[in-house]
Amino acid sequence: MLVRRLAEAPLEEWHKLRTKILMDAGELGSRHMSVTWVEVPPGIDQELHSHEESEQVYVFTKGAGAMTVAGDRQLIAEGDLVMVPPATDHSIQNDGDSDLCCVSVQSPAVTVAEVFAPTPAGSGDYEDDDQY
User: Fold this and answer.
1) SS3 6
2) Which pick of 16, 49, 75, 129 has the fewest CB atoms within 10 Å?
3) No. of helices (H) and no. of strands (E), the chain
4) Exposed, middle or buried by CB within 10 Å (0-12, 13-18, 19+), for 2?
């Protein structure tokens, strides 16, 4: 059995969003998916983004907030699942007073390097420190 403990997962922090890499592309024998644990602190509004080839599922485990997918904004809470088709803009917003946590699964896998790669020139600035 292949196990990665949340407490031992590598941590990436980008614009106040915390992501623990439970299974990066190609790890633990996986060929077609990647899995992350995402913590969205209060007041954080993630910038819209998409993954061109991957569909993505978010399963919310703690807190409440909102998620926008293809321009449709819906309130989300613990136990909710959100499906994001490939090449679809999406973002998470936490307007609450405690962390919003979820598990994100992508298939085909998206590597940590792809997710946290520097933003290409001309594709947007991060002047507002409360944005992801």
Assistant:
1) helix
2) 129
3) 1, 9
4) exposed
